[in-house]
Structures are given as C-alpha cells and as structure tokens.
Amino acid sequence: MFMTLNSFQFSSGTCGFKKTKKPDLAIIYSNIPCTYAGVFTTNQIRAACVDENKALLKKKKKIRAIIVNSGNANACTGEKGVQSVKNTQKIAANLLKVKLDEVLIASTGAIGVQLDMQKMEAGIKSAVPRLNPENFKGAAKAILTTDRFVKSFSMGTKDFKIIGFTKGAGMIHPNMATMLCYLMTDLKMSQSLLQEAVNTAVNISFNNISVDADMSTNDMVIILSNNTSHREVKTSKDPLFLNFQKVLNESCIKLAKQIVLDGEGAQKLIEVTVSGAKTEENAKLIARSIASSNLFKCAIHGSDPNWGRAAAKIGCTNIKVNQNKIDILLNNTSVFRNGNPVAFNKVKLNKEIKKKKGVRVNVNLKLGKKSGTAFGCDLTKEYVNFNSAYFT
Amino acid sequence: MFMTLNSFQFSSGTCGFKKTKKPDLAIIYSNIPCTYAGVFTTNQIRAACVDENKALLKKKKKIRAIIVNSGNANACTGEKGVQSVKNTQKIAANLLKVKLDEVLIASTGAIGVQLDMQKMEAGIKSAVPRLNPENFKGAAKAILTTDRFVKSFSMGTKDFKIIGFTKGAGMIHPNMATMLCYLMTDLKMSQSLLQEAVNTAVNISFNNISVDADMSTNDMVIILSNNTSHREVKTSKDPLFLNFQKVLNESCIKLAKQIVLDGEGAQKLIEVTVSGAKTEENAKLIARSIASSNLFKCAIHGSDPNWGRAAAKIGCTNIKVNQNKIDILLNNTSVFRNGNPVAFNKVKLNKEIKKKKGVRVNVNLKLGKKSGTAFGCDLTKEYVNFNSAYFT
User: Fold this and answer.
1) Is residue A22 located within the same domain as residue A79?
2) What tens digit of pLDDT does each residue of B248-300 get?
3) Quick one: pLDDT band at residue B30, thresholds 50, 70, 90?
4) A66 and A113 housed in the same domain
5) Would you say residue B1 lies in a domain?
6) Which residue of chain B comes nearest to A309, CA vs CA?
7) Looking at beta carbons, which residues of chain B come within 8 Å of A304?
8) What letter would DSSP give residue A208?
9) Which of A344, B12, B48, B224 has the largest count of CB atoms under 10 Å?
10) Which of B41, B42, B44 to mutate to test the interface with A (most CBs of A within 10 A)?
11) How far off is chain A from B263, nearest CA to CA, in Å?
12) How far apart are the first and last CA of chain A?
C-alpha cells in the first residue's frame, strides 16, 4: 500500500516528447517550502537543468516543486537549452503560484534536441490541475523512458516517512548520481544533515550500479524534506538520524537494484562483492570493474560460469593486487583459490545461474580488511536492439 | 603476394585445445638468433607466459622461436601454469634444437583452464617437421580464436623488410599491447632501438583500439630482427630508422584497424579523432571514451547518427573540457558547434552510415593544439551471441 506524505502532491501530463504519446511530464509539488539536498552527474557534458539545480542547492533555497520531463534530455542544447530551463521554471512558477527559484527542473531522453516549449507549456498546464497526494504512481510512471516497470517505495516509522521513485534503464554508470531519483521525507533537519544523508545513501547504492558504463548528462538524486514530523534531528549522531539514514540506505539500495534489473534488455542481476581490500574505495572500484565487463555480462547472460572473465577484470584497475592471493566464488561455489583454478561442477552451476534472477560474485583480495559491493546486469541482444533499432 | 624473410620459418599444428579441432598451434622459428623487443598487457592478472617473456626481454636474450597456442590462455592457472610454460619451452627447445631461453611462449583462449601438456607436446611434435618459410599464413591462421579472417602483412623497401600477423576479436582494450601480434624484420639494430620502434608503433595503433573495453591477461606485441639486412641503423635519428618506423607504424595501424573490424560480431569501424586538446594523451583518452561507448556503438550499429551519445562521453574522463566550445562532426557533417546542436539531414546521414563499412567522428575541444585517434567497432547482437551462447 502506498503511503501519502503530508504536503506533497503529484501529477503527470503529456507534452508529446515521446513518440509513443505516453505521459512524459511529472510534477512533484509541496504545499510548504521544503529543505532541498541532492547529488548530480559528474559528467562535464551536462544539461542546463543540472547546473540550475546545483545553483539553487548552493544558495540553500527552499523548494516547492520539481518539473520532470522525459523523452528529451535538453542536453547539448547550448544557450537555447539554458533559456528553456528558465522558461520552464517561469511557466511552472506562474501556474503553481510559487517563486521562480522554488522550482527544480529535470529532463531525460534524447540528447542534442531543443525542447519544444509550446509542448512543454501545454503539458504543464494540463498536469497542474490534477495535482493530488494520491497521484504518486502516475508521476513515477511519467518519468520513465525505456524502463519496463515503475520503481518506487514508501516506508515509515513512528517518527518519519520516506517515499520516492526513480528511473534508470540506459546510460547507467557509477561515479555519479546515476539516474533520476526523487525522495521525499517529513523528518525535520537542516540542509547540511539532509545532504549528508543523501550523499551516504547514494554512495552505497546508485553510485555502485552499472548497466552499460555510459555516464549520463542529466542524472540527479534529489531529496526534499517538508520538516513536518513531530521530531527534529539536530546532529548526525542522533539515533533518530542514524535510523533515518538506515531506512534511506535500504530504500536507495532497493531502488538501485531495481534500476539494474530493469537495465535495457537486462535479465539477470550481477552482484559483486570484493573483500580483503586496503580501502572501501579500492574494493568498490574492482567490484565495478567486474560488474561492468561486457564479456562477463555476456557470460552471465548465457548462464555460463565463466569466472575467468571476472578474474581478468580484477587486474585492470590501478589498484595493486596479487593474483596468487585471490579467491573467487560464484554463487558461493569456490572457483579460484589462492590464484589457482578450483575444480567445480560446471553443469550444476550453469543450471543454478539459469534458474535464478541473479548471480553473486565474491572476490577476496587478501590485502586488507575493507570490502565493497557493485551491481550490474547481463548484456543481452535486447540491449543492442533497444539501442540500435530506433532512429533518433 | 607474400614476401618471405630470410631465416624465418613458420608452421602450424593441432593440439586439440579448440573444440572445432582447427589448428591451434603456431611456431615462428629463425635459423639465426634474433634481437627481441616487445610490449605486454598491463593487466595485473597475467598469464605466466607474459612474465616469462618479459624476463627474457629484461635479460636482453636473443630469441630463436615463438610457440603460440590458441584455445587455452593458461591464465589464472597458478604454479601449475608456470610449470606448463617451462615445460612447453623444454619440449620446443629440444625439438627445435635451440636453447631453452631462446623460446618465447604465448597462449590465448579460455582463462582458468590448465594446459594439457600431452596435447601441447603432440601439437609441437607434429608442427616442427613442417617448418617452412612459406607457411606464414598457416601460422597466422593457427593463432586465431573467434577471428573471422587472417590479419597479416608484408612490406619491403630496398633496405629492409617487415612481415607480421596478429589476432584480436574479443577482450580488446587500449593501455596494453591489446592482442597477440608477431612482427619480423631483417633491419640491423640494437635491442633498445627495436624496443623504441615497437613502443612508438604500438602507441599509435594497438593501444588505441577497443572492441569491448575488456583487457586481456595474455596480450603481447613481439618484434624480432634477424639483423641480416645489408644496412645497419645506429641511432633513432638515422633517416633509415625513421623510414623503418614509418613503415612499422603504417603496418601496425593497418593491423589494428583489421582487429577492430574483426571484433566479435563487428560490422562497422568507428574512427574517432579528437583535436584541439592540450596534450596528445588527453585527445586519445577522450577519443577512446567515445569509441568504447556501448550506447554509441549500438547507435552506429543501427546507422543512427546519434551524436549525443558521443557528446556525453566527452565529459566522462578526468580531462577538463568546456562544453560550450566543442564541435562534433559525423562523417564530415557538422552536428554540434560551439556547444549547440546543428540542424542536419538525419535521413541522408543515416543512409550514408548504412552504406559504408565505417564511420568517422571528429571532435574539436578548442583547448589546445594536440590531437589523437582511437578505433572502435559497433556493438551487435552477434557480439552478445558470441560471448553468451557458448559454454566454457
């Protein structure tokens, strides 16, 4: 059952950016100004909306609304693209009766195409009157592109609620916010604490997933708090903050896994955990190296326990390893121990991988005590189809 | 017409490492000791043969023979794998009547499988009696794995000859030697000059290609000189050395392009040139970033002039760029100028890409005067098929 969250309303509309004519506009709106924190793509080729949102974050602005369109990324669109962001803010602010700098903008879709502002205006106009606390799923659906299913959650404790939705599918790679994600809570805290919480959650979830090693121009994770809970968190040591962080982490990991499993054409989740590293960052880097290997992704697609392709990726980063110390397990079956191949039942493991929705790779480097996890998906003919068979 | 090279003989044999029972053993042999230089994979997960060959290079050994087996990489095989390399050297040295440390070893194929030394011995035994200067193509064919065609060349001037062959197909990514390649010449020069020549050639050819961004455990480029030419090169400023370097560069670029075009399932060559960079290395890094983008590779597979996917990859490296200065051309058609999309005839460009075997991407960063090129290939359903549909 979906949980509504005091002050937040949602709506969806259709601008006509998508060839399918499916809904392609989402509005998130709050009756009261919200504390705003976020994480953005680290790609230097960025859409203008990313820069605009970052500027508002820096100014520590309270936020009233987020306008998200899918089907057109408004990236690589130069000065005209910047104007489109400003115009969208203007249209939305007018209709929503909020200030211009209380509106965040997000876009996702084709790169290098100017936004049709007439379509955008019509879409916003049609959506605003339908804002409603219950329209959460409609908004979550409207931001999707090639995603096959809606990815959302809502969780609550006696002291706070968190709800959120996300989209992923293609151009998914770590070291960035990785996709569009909107999180809303009522827990009362400062912007800096909210930022700390979202940084931590993104770092262990969306920053560790890869669908195709391509980094997007538009990605962002945004969290808003309307500060209406009966409790207030004042420091990051407060047990209530720790609990909030725990719930946020779990929610983001759940969403991140859903994104990977809904990677374009993906059929299997690949979960790689590297332990025995000197630092957590080292462990993650090697885990990501494996999770994003085209060859290993293809092997897993064929349910082939071809651990050699994973082994080869361990040595490809700039993290020093000793191949004679390394252990590898595939779905808890030991396949490589102290740098030596282990005899195992290939047919049994093949059948096991075939049956399940996911596969686990565990690597022990035996160089230290830190570990890290990355999530990837298999590479399929459908991925190639998705990304080659349509014409921009 | 193939050119033989005084002192060099070739042979191929069948050990039975390949399920297809096709030839899987090549011998390169020289009647006289050869100066030896080479470049090796930078992957820390390396096959034992790579370490052995590097040790011989360090000792400045003269070389008499190279034994190459395909179908089994003998990588991730621990101490037993090291012994297999030593045993192969022993068997070959005995049969070829050369010293043990005059034999280089190379392997390519499945990772993590121990070499069957009985099969190896039988293969070498059957191949040695058939050594012949004319068996060049047979040897070039025997080292292939999933390659669809033999990649070789021979070139000569009045002062020297160079012949060579290579294999590629999968697990092809820069920052390494990138595949197996054997080059032979007669031009008389020191080991250090020969090493300088091969470093330069690899740097502008094999180090700039990507099929699937996976880096192999076994890759090497080896060059041998039997020093029998009537001319001797003493310094790298000698016009004859410069001419040799030029011929070697051209040959390696030709082979590198053939490797990419024969990438698993590849149908189109993607040639990316980045200019206006501050350093050549910066230009190459960005060119490689584009050439290895799964999304752009898929677009090109569909002949879709989706330059936005290339643009997105420009900002993903740690090289600082200014998106408002960037120009992009696709097959000489301007699609992005000073950070703004340019209107162009999409249908015409789509048809043009469809017709040709390759596509050219030109990026101008307008930050400096250096440029660099990288080669990639499209991503196809056949690639996925190749790498998922067989069982290790």
Assistant:
1) yes
2) 999 999 998 888 887 777 889 899 999 999 999 999 989 988 998 888 988 89
3) very high
4) yes
5) no
6) B111
7) 388, 390-392
8) G
9) B224
10) B44
11) 13
12) 38
pLDDT tens-place string over residues A308-356: 889 888 888 889 999 899 999 999 999 999 988 899 998 999 999 999 9
A360-386 residue pLDDT tens: 999 999 999 999 998 888 888 887 777
Q: Is B80 a domain residue?
A: yes
Residue A181 and residue A312 in one domain: no
Q: Give pLDDT, residue B213.
A: 59
Chain A: give the shortest CA distance to residue B18, in Å: 16
On whether both B277 and B255 belong to a single domain, the answer is no
Tell me which chain A residues have a C-beta less than 8 angstroms from the C-beta of B213: 213, 293-294
The structural domain count of chain B equals 2
| Segments in A76-131 forming alpha helices (H) | 78-96, 117-127
ipTM of the complex: 0.81
The answer, yes or no, to whether residue B302 has pLDDT greater than 80, is yes
Active site residue B157: no
Pick left, alpha or beta for residue A65 (phi over 0 → left; psi -120 to 50 → alpha; otherwise beta).
beta
Local confidence band at B145 (pLDDT 50, 70, 90 cut-offs)? confident
Same domain, B237 and B300: no
Burial class (CB in 10 A: 0-12, 13-18, 19+), B231: middle
Catalytic residue among B108, B145, B166, B178: B178
Q: Looking at the domain assignment, is residue A384 inside a domain?
A: yes
Q: Which domain holds residue A83?
A: 8-261
What pLDDT is recorded for position B177?
42
Residues A257 and A273 in one domain: no
Nearest-by-Cβ selection for A323 from B44, B213, B307? B44
Is A48 in the same domain as A165?
Answer: yes
Task: List the single residue in B113, B212, B350 with the smallest CB-CB distance to A294.
Answer: B212
| Residue A252 DSSP one-character state | H
Which of B73, B378, B381 lies at the smallest CB-CB distance from A385?
B381
Of A240, A261, A282, the domain-final residue: A261
- Inspect the interface and report whether the beta carbons of A294 and B321 lie closer than 8 Å: no
- H helices present in B15-135, as ranges: 48-58, 78-96, 117-127
CATH number of the domain residue A64 falls in: 3.60.70.12
C-beta atoms of A309 and B214 within 8 A: yes
Report the CATH number at residue A311.
3.10.20.340
Nearest CB among A77, A301, A391 relative to B304 is that of A391
Give the CA distances from residue A290 to residues A98, A265, B285, in Å, rounded to whole numbers and listed in that order: 47, 19, 21
Closest residue, chain A, to B301 (C-alpha): A388
Look at residue A170 in the predicted model and tell me its pLDDT.
Answer: 60
pLDDT number for residue A171:
56
- Cα–Cα distance measured from residue A162 to residue A247, given in angstroms and rounded to the nearest whole number: 8
Q: Which of A378, A346, A107, A181 is nearest to A267 (CA)?
A: A378
Report residues of chain A scoring pLDDT below 70. Answer: 1-2, 169-178, 210-215, 389-392
Do B254 and B363 have their domain in common? no
Q: pLDDT at position A391, please?
A: 55
Among B214, B230, B261, the domain boundary falls at: B261
The residue among B219, B292, B294, B301 with the most chain A CBs within 10 A of its CB, best to mutate, is: B294
Interface contacts A/B by beta carbons within 8 Å: 234
Assess if residue B2 is contained within a domain.
no
Chain A positions touching B114 (Cβ under 8 A) are 341
Contacts of A268 in chain B (CB under 8 A): none
Q: Rounded to whole angstroms, how far apart are CA atoms B245 and B112?
A: 37
* Whole-Å CA distances, B197 to B202, B242, B248, B253: 9, 9, 8, 14
